Structure formats: C-alpha cells, structure tokens
Sugar transporter
Amino acid sequence: MKTSTMRCASFFLLATTAVLNPVAAFGMKHAKATTTTTLQSISNPNSDMNHRNSHYRRQQHVTPPSSFRRMTRPVRTSSSTQLSIANINQFRGGADIVSNSVATFFQGAKQWNASPTSLFNTSFVAVAMLTAVFKILQRISDYNSKNNESTKSTEVTTPGRIKELQIKFLSVFWLLRCADWLQGPYFYEVYASKVFNGVPASIALISRLFLTGFASTAVFGPLVGRAVDLYGRKSGTIAFSLIYAVGALSTKSPLLLVLFLGRVFSGIGTSLLFSAPESWLVAEAQKDGEDPDGKYLGETFGLAYAGDSIVAILAGQLAGIAASQKGPTGPFELSTVFLAAGGLLAAFLWGENKATEDGSASSGKPSIKDAIQVVKNDPKIMLVGGVQSLFEAAMYIFVLQWPPAISKAVTKAFGESSVTPYGAVFSCFMACCLFGSTLFGQLAKIGVSTEAFTLGMLSVGTLAMSLAAFTVSSAVSMSLPLLVASFFAFEACVGIYFPCIGTLRSKYVPDSHRSVIMNLFGIPLNVLVVGVFLSISKLGLSGALKISAGALATATLFMLKLVMSIRAPNGENQAAVDSIP
C-alpha cells in the first residue's frame, strides 16, 4: 500500500483537477438522475428539465473562484498603522507580488458564493480538504501507535495473504467500476442521437430504454445469482466484462431492436457486477480463516469504495474527452477497454471459487427455491436484505430527484438566469462519498461494530433525507444551503453504506447461496424505483423524497432490530426485539 504522503498528494492532485475542470458529465449512479429527470417530462409536460439539460450540455469548462487561484496571508491593520494595498509597495522583497496576492484573496473571498459554480467549487475544495486532513490525522495516529513502546508488542499487522488478496481484488474492481461509471454521463445523448424512419428518438422511447435496464435486472437477477454461485464467481466476473461490453457496443447500432437487447444485456451485467466480485472476495477472505472476525474484509470494502469515489470523478473526465473525440458513443467504446482490462486481470490473477455445498439443499446445488428457504429460516438475513433493498431504493430515488431539486433551489437563490453546474455538484457528492468511506475504514480499523455503525449511518441518512423533503416542500422558503447540506450528508452516508453492507453480507449471508440471495433482494429495490419513476407526475419532488425518507426510516428499524437481536442471542429482551415492527 502507498504511504500517507503519496495518498495525500494524489488526493490533492485529484481535487485540483476536479476544481479546475469539473466533471461535465457524471457517472452511472448519479448520471441516471439527469437522464431520468429529462425523461420525466413525459408524465409532467410542464417540466423544465429540457431547459436544464440544455444548460447542462453547454457546460464544458468552469473557472474556479479567484480565491483559489492564489491565496496569501492577509495584511494586518491597526489604529496606529494602516497598511493599504497602495502603501504596501513601499516595502522591499516582492511587495508587488504580496499586494496583488492580498487583493486577489480579498476579492475572491467576497465572491465564493457569487455564482452557483463558485459555490459548489468552494464546497468541493472544502470537503476534499476535510477528507485529506482526516486522512493525514489518521496516518499520524497510526504512526504514533506503531512507535509507542507499550503497543509494539501487541501490534497486529495485516497478513501478507490478505494484502495480496486486496491488491488482486481492488485492481479488478476499480477497472470494472470505471467501465460502469463511463457509460452513465451520455446515456441520454447516445439514444437521443438515434434516428428511426427519419424521426429522432423521442423522450418516450428513451424512457422505455431506461426502464428496460431496471426490468432486466429485476427479472434476471436471481437467475444470474444462481449461475454465479453454481459456475463460479471468477467466471461471473469475466461474464460481466463480456456481457456489459455487448451492451455498450449496441449503442453504435441504428436498429431499435439491437438497442433494446443492449439494455437487456446491460441489466444482466449490472446484476453480475453487484454480486460476482463481492462474492469472490468474501469467499477468498474466509477460505483460510485468517480473518475470522471480518476486520480485514471490512478494511478492504472501505478501500474499495473510497477508491470508487475517485474513480467516478476520473471517469467523468475521461467520458467528456471521449465524447469530444468520438461523439456520444465514445464513452461507451472507451468503457469496453476497461472491461477488457478488468476481465483479463480477473482471468490471470483470480482463482475460481464456487458456492460451498449446503447439505440442506434439495439437489446439493444452489437454487432459487433453496435460497428463499434459507432467507425464511434466518431472520437476520431478512433484516440485512431489507436494509439493502430499502437503502438502495432510497438512494436511486434520490438519484432521480436531486437534479431538479438542486436546480430549483439554485434558481431561487441566484435568479432565473442562473445555470446549475451539475458537474461541480457531482464532484461534491463524490467527495462526500469519499469522506464517508474513509470514515468507515478508520472505524473498522479500531474495532467499532459494523452493526452499530450502520445503525448510526441510517439514522443520519433518514434525518438528512427528511430535511431535504421538508426543504423542497416549503416552496416559499426553499433554502439552497439547507438542501445542499442535507444532500451532502446523505452522500456521506452512501459512502459509508456500501462497505457496511458488504461487511454485513459477508457475516450473515451464507456462502452457499450468497449471489442468489443478493439478487433476490434486488427485486423489491427495482420495483420500488420503477414505481416511483412512473408515478413522479403525481408524487412530485417532495413526494418522491418523502418516500425515500420513509424507506430509510424503515431500514433504520430493521437495523435496530438486528442490533438488538445480536445483543440478546439467548432470548434476553426478546420481547423488546419482537416489538419492533
């Protein structure tokens, strides 16, 4: 692993790059939001999303606020000695440079919130610096701990096999995630550029293509999970590379049937991406018993999703470059390069592992029927799966709604002529995710219970989403700072969630049916998201965010019940556990 100095240097370089050239088009998870809010004009003819998307497509470069171009310590003044920019020039030793720097600093300090772009660029730098400082303090603490004579004898180092496993997994995982993020920014543009019988693709058609991907994931997910457990997680990861590449290349076709088939393949690929690599990692980590309490597994998940936030920002940059060179299909073509690289690395670096046999299975092989029975027999699996379905449904509903919510708040704060910098907002979201994943990694390292940490995260997420729903519903007093703060807090929770849920699944979901069970809980997730999408004209922004807050509140109750059940393993306080809905 790299030293703290290298990590911090890399992070500041990334932060600087993102501020100087914010992501013009962002990754799959959040990019679906802009696409979907555009599609929502089908059910809401008065929607102004076409106007917002046109502004978004015109954004190519955003200049950072002047306060970040050059910052110098301000000159002190007193009643007896007044130092102005003019008389500073009387001093020797670069007085002109100092005076210009001071003037630039004060001018920039007054303009940090002069426009939406400067506001979100400033916010990005603030969150990025907060994360970097937190990481530096963490490294200093680790260094001091290692040099403390009283702890040297009890210091536990990461086993060599675990480090090797982390390198093998992360190198493949980040390549595949980059391929996924690359495809998101130009989802709408690539299909809007198609012409059928002399008529450009309508928004209604694009919406059907969008929903086809969700439906494919819901329908084929359990079958895909069973195949992964039966034939191997390495094979499932390689299959993802191939299937997702087919979906990406289908965007070059002018045939409508090929485009729909491509969306079906993409939906199947999504099921593979979110089950096969994780199942492979967990099985490998538990193989030799070197990580019985899951400490190093939690650390690995923290690293994976912290890096994923950085990968998302870089993928947005690469997608913009590819689109400028090859048009809207460029990012999809570039995605296949990363898919090929990830698939080849998995083929050469990973060993195969399959689901362990379950003696209670009717056929000795993993099946959907047996997986359902396993879930029914263990309430803890049901609780973990419920948290997964509800949180991710809330997350995707948020993904569908944050662009119009932010746009309306920006318009109210800065006027009708203001343009929402979606790329800069996305960069802020990813910085918040990175902070959340970094926080998880530190707490996992010091031994904080994942269950308790997840409960706290869900509580904060519920409060944040409730605040956002309240802010949006209060049209007269809609506050941009409150909305941004609530969204940033929720994105930090997203950064915490993924390593948390990965650790919980590794602990409670049996290896014999892991991939099947993970995909089974994807069914209610996708049904809820599609239902909200189809009903958005009736629900509105506030209604959708309220559903998201309700899903998070229910997930919090599920997690509370799980925490109480593991604290009363022998039936103690069981009445209190059963009383939780």
